[in-house]
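User: Fold this, then the next.

Assistant: Folding the first:
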Amino acid sequence: MSSDVVGRWTVSLADGIHKVEFEHGTLSGKRVIRVDGKEIYRVDWMFKLVGTEYFNIGKVKCSININATTGFAYEYSLLVNGQVFEIFTENQRKILNTWIVTIAGNPLRVALEKDTLDIWVNGEKAETTAEFVENGTETHFEICHHSAYIKASSSGNRKSGIVYTFILLHNLSIYLSIYLSIYLSIYLYIQRTKQALLTGAIFPNVCRYRPFCL
């Protein structure tokens, strides 16, 4: 790991959680930006040691500001969508609801943008269908061939506002198909074993008609 790493931030967006890393060489002016471990920007030498570097995380605009403090010390700040990182993070907590669900042993991240009602599954925007129900709305979508929906209902408390509940409906047809496949395999194994016993394929030295053996 480079000793020039001066800043690390974890940015929570609708399409997932991203890690931003920034290197700054205070002698060479080197600047390197990595997002999720992938290098997206590099300058190995720069005369000016302060300034701003711009980059994107997907469609989200970001920038890193480099400011001199005292002597040869510098401070670094990340802006996301024009907001200081700390303020952006706080706002994201207000407009973004996330759930982690495990299907077939794989953890999946489901995110709801409350301001747009868009739903994201592991970074992919899901196709949704909304309908009005008693005491709220339900937004339906699919996740790994399973039906799911997010229900929005009133909490009855003005301070709490709307409560969002994620519900996963397991696809019974998948489990039924697996069960039938296992049952059929066992049935065929039993039938083959019976046939082998009758023909003496398993115990060739045992007479099939014992009373007539000499």
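Now the next one, as you asked:
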Amino acid sequence: MKKFNKMLLEQIIEAYQEKIVDILCSKSGLVAKKGLGKHPVKGNKSKLCRCRTFTRSGYWQDKRTLRGEFGSVDFFPAIIQCSNCGKRFTPVLAALELEAYQGKTDKILRMVTESVAETSYRRGASQLSVLAGVPVCRSTAHQWAASVDLPLSKSGSAPFLAADGTGFKKQGGSRGTVNLVLELGKNGGVRPLGVWAGTSWESMSKEIEQTVKDGQYRLLLCDGERAIDKWLGKFAEKTNRGHWHLPRELKYALWGDDTTFEDRKDASAKLRQLIAVEIPGEDIEAVEESEKNELHQRIREAEKKIEGLQQEFAQKGYTKAVTYLENARGRIFNHLHLCIIRELVRRLKKIGWNWSDEGATRMGRIVMIRRYDNSAWEKYWRDKMNLCGRCKISIVKCERKMVA
């Protein structure tokens, strides 16, 4: 079947090419040749030739190989020559919207990119070779995927903003950081706003504020990194801090109060127990009302105990620890949604490549938008492939011959 598809596609390209050449080399007027045969004046690429009279000038000496979803397709591009300026060119390439030495279609580029975003370069290349009959080596898959430059998404109406970052191994063995910002909906929907590598949170906030208003979101979800809170906090009414870092930072505050190691260890363990309130794994909107009430009750009890811990520190004169808990206490349990951002940033590491900052930025956006913003993903490829529904191919006759 793959061999038949390849033969059929080659015949379609050749027939399409002959149709174009016949029209351009005929005595038809400009109306029949509209949209075909545009070319620069010979020796002056900045000026278009107005002539639309051409003669045939042979074919390429070597076959043109183009890798697509049905495998590799080979054909000899036809050449025509302008009767006015003498420019020789290949009209079928312009008609198919191909570059002079383009070796792949946008369709196969999309297939490679989607496969890589779901697995890794090595597995993605193997899957394409097995399922689609398209042999693409790992290094080629990397180069193709890294060439896809998705734009930043515009903000929507989601109530929550989430931000985090992860480290990755850069080219040369140094360590880099990929930061990403997402919108989270009430029903668990995720919409990536952008991914950046080698970019500060301050610079990212300047890009984000072009489409996001101050105080637009009800809540900013982050791990408590001060830079995130400082530069992205203005976009939300409140900030929720991740739980995992609170006991550790409390120890630093207690260290500033000149407490003993054992006191710091005990206080950190006590806080870790107080904040261990598990939120249901499913969407909070789907949780039973009784479970919601129970969860609210557990949160209120935990908040009271943390307040008691704060009073205990005040009695002992631990001023820095009191200030830390005062700043953190009101923002620990102010949401009932799981922040899935940790899962997303781990996904970037599974792809497996030593990136530059630019490559990490592009690959990060591919992973996020491919998995969580299908409408933006489809729009990007429709625009890139210039799909307007202008062409329709119908097979009107098919003959099968038995060969002895």
